[in-house]
């Protein structure tokens, strides 16, 4: 597939994917492959008719597409995810308070989903997936002393590592692994620009 989702700069598009049901539909299609609304209803709460509406909205804004090649009887509509994920930067939405609010809401929805996935893993993941996956799973946090430029450099380095591991083909023992990363300044010392001094 040559199509790929791009960086989102339009608040209308971001608002579409920031809907919890649509985000979940996109996740399932990315992880499990093409499906019909009826099949997706097993994973995403909602009536098939409601899910079909959300699927059409996702398709209209370039997150998924119809897969007519998979339709055997001509009646059911199949959908597939367009790869590339959901990417945007708050700086692209700084022009208006309305756009800023859309970006903030989208961030809350995505972070909420990240936490949900972590809670699902903690609830029964080790028992369901077994010892090999439980011992391989990773959780860590660190507090670093960085400048904004150093944080950007760290981000680029981490992106390169993730890109190196991304896109591996299916194979024996290989499954989807969810990784999420947030890096930001925290309370404890005032920003250097506010104090007029460099961090200690």
Looking at this protein, list some descriptive labels.
single chain, 200 residues, mainly alpha, Arc Repressor Mutant, subunit A, three-stranded antiparallel beta sheet, 8 helices, 3 strands, HTH_ArsR_DNA-bd_dom, WH-like_DNA-bd_sf, Helix-turn-helix domain-containing protein, ArsR-like_HTH
Description of the structure:
The protein is mainly α and 200 residues long. The chain has a domain at 11-137: Winged helix-like DNA-binding domain superfamily/Winged helix DNA-binding domain (Arc Repressor Mutant, subunit A). The chain is built from eight helices and three strands. It has helices at residues 11-17, 20-32, 37-40, 48-60, 97-129, 131-136, 148-165, 192-195; strands at 35-36, 64-66, 78-81. A three-stranded antiparallel sheet has the order 1-3-2. Helix 1 runs parallel beside helix 5 and helix 2 (20-32) packs across helix 4. The termini are far apart. Residues 12-95 form the HTH arsR-type domain. It comes from Microbispora hainanensis.
């Amino acid at each position: 597939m040559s199509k790929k989702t791009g960086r989102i700069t339009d608040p209308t598009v971001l608002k579409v994917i920031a809907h919890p049901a649509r985000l979940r539909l996109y996740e399932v299609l990315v992880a499990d492959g093409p499906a019909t609304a009826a099949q997706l209803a097993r994973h995403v709460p909602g009536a098939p008719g409601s899910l079909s509406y959300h699927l059409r909205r996702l398709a209209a804004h370039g997150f998924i597409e119809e897969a007519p090649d998979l339709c055997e009887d001509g009646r059911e509509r199949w959908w597939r995810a367009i790869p590339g994920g959901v990417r945007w930067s708050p700086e692209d939405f700084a022009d208006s308070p309305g756009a800023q609010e859309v970006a903030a809401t989208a961030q809350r929805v995505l972070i909420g989903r990240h936490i949900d996935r972590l809670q699902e893993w903690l609830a029964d993941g080790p028992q369901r997936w077994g010892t090999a996956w439980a011992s391989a799973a990773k959780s860590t946090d660190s507090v670093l002393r960085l400048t904004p430029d150093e944080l950007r450099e760290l981000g680029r380095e981490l992106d390169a590592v993730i890109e190196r591991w991304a896109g591996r083909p299916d194979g024996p023992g290989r499954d989807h692994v969810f990784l999420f990363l947030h890096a930001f300044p925290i309370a404890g010392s005032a920003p250097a620009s506010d104090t007029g001094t460099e961090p200690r």
